[in-house]
Amino acid sequence: MTENSERRVVSVIVVNEASVLSRITNLFSGRGYNITSLTVAPIPDSKYSRLTIVTSGSVRVIEQITKQLHKLIPVLRVYEHADLVEKEMALIKFPITENIGDINTLCEAYNGKIVNSGENVIIAMVADEPKRVSNFLEAIKRYNPKEIVRSGAVALER
Amino acid sequence: MQISGAQMVIEAFIAEGVDTVFGYPGGAIMNVYDEIYKQDGFQHILNRHEQASIHAAEGYAKASGKVGVAMITSGPGFTNAVTGLADAYMDSVPLVVVSGQVPMSLIGTDGFQEIDAIGISRPCTKHNYLVTDAADLPRVLKEAFYIARSGRPGPVHVDIPKDVTAQIAEFNYDIELELETYKPHVKGNPRQIRKAMEAIAKSKRPLFYLGGGIINANAAYEVRELVHKTGIPAVETLMARGVLAHDDDLLIDMLGMHGSYAANMAMSETDLVIGLGARFDDRVTGKLSEFAKNADVIHVDIDPASISKLVNADYPIVGDVKNVVNEMLEQVDKIHSEKYELWRETISNFAELHPLTFHEDTDRIKPQWVVKRVGELLGDSANISTDVGQHQMWAAQFYPFSRPNQWITSGGLGTMGFGFPAAIGVKAACPDKISINFTGDGSILMNVQELMTAVEKKIPVINIILNNNFLGMVRQWQTLFYDKRHSETDLSVQPDFVKLSEAFGGIGYRVKTKEEFDAALKDAVEKNVVTFIEVIVERFENVMPMVPSGGSLFNMMLLEKKETK
After folding, report:
1. What is the CATH number of domain A6-82?
2. Crossing angle of helices B261-269/B341-353, nearest 10°?
3. What is each CA distance from B346 to B269, B306, B313, B331, in whole angstroms?
C-alpha cells in the first residue's frame, strides 16, 4: 500500500449465521487488507449482527473493501463512516502496591474507574475514543500495569 | 411430501431443469448416488477425476448458458474439485456443486475423509453452505441455483453431511426466496447511461472494450447491434471471443498481452473506452499507468466491485449489460457513425502495418496454421475449447469465431487440464456441434483420464494436440526473458499419444503434413468417437505479438517482418 494510507472505520451488518465472521476475515486476509481491530455482537431483537472494523488503506483500497464486503451474500449493509462517534474500552490490571488514588483519578479523566480489587491486583476500566485510550495507556505506564486488554472500537454515525 | 435429504437433491435438480450431472461417487455422498440410480430425470456422467467433473460442468454451463451441476464426495473428492471451483469463480461460471460430508457427529473429529470443505471453498466460490438439517435443503438448493446464475454468476458449493442426506423432512420446492441481503443491481442508472451516451457522442476516438460478461448476460446480439449502429470499433478480451463475428469490419481482434497490434494501439490511442462486462485484468491492461492514458472510461458491469478496481471509471454503470445496452440502443440516434471515419481509418492502418499473422517458413507445420485450418474446415459447426498455454492464445487469435458460447477457455485462473473435460461438457450441452479441444502436449496429460469418460459415454471430443515437445508458453518466456535457460520445460520424453487414445478405446492420429492433418480431421469427424490428433508442429514458435509482463500495451514485441502468405 504505497498510496496515502488512512485509518477508516467500517461497520458491517451481517446475517447472524454460522461462519459469517470467517467470510469477513477471509476476505481481508485473502485480498491483503488490514484489520486494526474488529468487534462483533448481535443486534438486539434481530437476526443480524454488527461488526465494527477499524482498517487502513488508500481511498481506492477502502472503496474496494466496502464493495467486496457488500458482495458477500450474508452482508446486508456496509457503512464507511465519515462523521461518527467512536468509543473503545480497555481493562488494565495493576499490582495492588501501586498508588490506587492516582490511578483512580487518571481513570476518571477517561470515563473510567477501578472496577475490581483483589488480594494482589486491582482492575481498572476506561471507555473513551480510541486515541484517548491510547493516551491513557501511555500515561499509566509508570504504574506498572501487568495486563492490558482493549476491546477494539465501536462506532455510530452521528 | 416427506422425503430424505438425498431424494431432495434429486427433486431439486429436476425442478431446476437439470439434464446432466457430472460427478464421482464416494462414501459420504453414497445416499445421493443411491437416489441417482433410481431416477431417470437427468443423466449422470462419471468423470474419472473430480477436477474433471467441475471443468465438464463449466464447459456445459459456458456452452449452454445454463447452470452446470457437479457432485462429489467428501475429503479428497472435494479437494480434487477445488481447482475447478477456483476456475469457475475467476471466470464467473454459474455452477452448483454438491459435496458429501462426514456425518454431523464426526465433524471436527478428523474423521475418515473429513476436511473442512466450506472453509476451503469459501475464497473460491460465490457462496457456500454446510447444511446441518434436511429441512433446510429445499431452501438452500433453491438459493444455490439462484445465486449461481443471478448477478455476476459464479460457483455455489453445498456441503451435505451423510446423515443429513438420510434424514427425512418435508420437501416443498415451490417457495419464495427471501434473500434480504442479496439483491443484484440489474438495471443501470438512466442518468448515468444518458451521460455515457453523451460522452460517446462527444468523443472522437471511442472504442468498445468487450468482455466475457456480455456472454454471461446473453447480450452478444444486442452488443452487435450497438456496435453496428454506432460504427464504433471494438476490441475483445480473451473471454469475449465470439461476441462479434470474426468477419465483422468493426472487430479489431483481441487485445492484451497477446492481442493484435491494431487492438493494442487502438486501446492506447482511444479517447473513450466503452467497457462492457470486462474487468481490466492485468493480462489486458499491461502497465496500468500507461493503459488508455488519454481516455475517459465508461464501465458497465454487474459487479460494483469490478468498477474502478484497477482503472478509474468516469462513467460507472452498475447493471446487467443486456439491460444497459438495450437502454443505450434507445438513445443511439445521438451518435453519428460518420464522425468516426478517420478513427476507423487510423485503426485499419494499424492493422495493415502489423497484421495478425504468422510465417510459414519451416518444413514443420505451424501451430497457427492448424487453428486456421480447423476454422476453414469446421468454422461455425464446431465449439472450441482449449487448455492453457501457447495453443490457447493461437486458438484465440486465429479461430474464426462466429457466435457467443462457441469459445470455451480458462481465462482468469489459467488452468491446464481444463480443455478436455470442458469439451466433454460442451458436447453434452450441444450434441449437434462438433466439440474440438485445442491442447498442448503439456496440458493434455493433466486430465488425460477423461478418455475413459468420453469412451464410456460416447462423447466424441476431438482433441487436437499441438505437439512442440515443450511446455511451450513457459519455454517462450524462458527464451525471451531467462536467456534461453529452458528449465524443466523440455517435454521430449512423451507417451505415444495415438496408442494412449487407443488404449482407452478412442482413436488417434499422428500427423506431420498438412495433407495428413486434413485427412485425419475429416476422418475423426466422420468416425464420431473420442480422438487425439497429434500434430507435430514447429518447436520454437512464439506467440506474437507479446506485451512483456508489466509493460505498456503499445510496447509490443512483434512478429519479424518477412514475406507473409
Report:
1. 3.30.70.260
2. 140
3. 10, 31, 25, 27
Shortest CB distance from A73 goes to which of B119, B123, B181? B181
Q: Chain B: give the shortest CA distance to residue A108, in Å.
A: 42
Mutate to test the interface with A, among B116, B120, B122, B124 (most CBs of A within 10 A): B122
Q: Which of A14, A19, A71 sits opposite B305 (nearest CB)?
A: A71
Residue matched to cell numbers 473471454: B239
Q: Does the annotation mark B236 as catalytic?
A: no
B179 touches chain A (CB under 8 A): yes
Residue A58 in contact with partner chain B when CB distance is under 8 A: no
3-class SS string, B101-167: ECCHHHCCCCCCCCCCHHHHHHHHCCEEEECCCHHHHHHHHHHHHHHHHCCCCCEEEEEEEHHHHHC
Task: Indicate if B78 belongs to the active site.
Answer: no
Q: Does A30 touch chain B (CB under 8 A)?
A: yes
List the single residue in A with minimal CA-CA distance to B122: A23
Tell me, yes or no, if B257 is annotated catalytic.
no
Active site residue B162: yes
Count how many pairs of residues, chain A against chain B, have C-beta atoms within 8 Å.
38
Partners of residue B303 in chain A, C-beta under 8 Å: 71
pTM to 2 decimals? Answer: 0.95
| Alpha-helix runs per DSSP H in B383-537 | 390-398, 419-429, 450-456, 472-481, 497-504, 514-527
Inter-chain residue contact B304 with A30, CB threshold 8 Å: no
Q: Where are the domains of chain A?
A: 6-82, 85-157
pLDDT 10s digit of each residue in chain B, 565 long?
Answer: 999 999 999 999 999 999 999 999 999 999 999 999 999 999 999 999 999 999 999 999 999 999 999 999 999 999 999 999 999 999 999 999 999 999 999 999 999 999 999 999 999 999 999 999 999 999 999 999 999 999 999 999 999 999 999 999 999 999 999 899 999 999 999 999 999 999 999 999 999 999 999 999 999 999 999 999 999 999 999 999 999 999 999 999 999 999 999 999 999 999 999 999 999 999 999 999 999 999 999 999 999 999 999 999 999 999 999 999 999 999 999 999 999 999 999 999 999 999 999 999 888 999 999 999 999 999 999 999 999 999 999 999 999 999 999 999 999 999 999 999 999 999 999 999 999 999 999 999 999 999 999 999 999 999 999 999 999 999 999 999 999 999 999 999 999 999 999 999 999 999 999 999 999 999 999 999 999 999 999 999 999 999 999 999 999 999 987 754 4
Q: Do domains A6-82 and A85-157 have the same CATH topology?
A: yes
Establish whether B50 is a catalytic residue: yes
The one-letter amino acid code at B127 reads H
Residues of A in contact with B145 (CB under 8 A): none
Which of A19, A67, A73 lies closest to B147 in CB terms? A73
* Centroid of chain to Cα B213: 11
Q: Which of residues 68-97 of A touch B (CB under 8 A)?
A: 68, 70-71, 73-76
CB-side exposure of B129: number of CA atoms within 13 Å? Answer: 25
What are the structural domains, with CATH classification, of chain B? 2-170 (3.40.50.970), 190-353 (3.40.50.1220), 367-536 (3.40.50.970)
What is the identity of the amino acid at B565? Answer: K
What is the architecture of the domain spanning A85-157?
Answer: 2-Layer Sandwich (3.30)
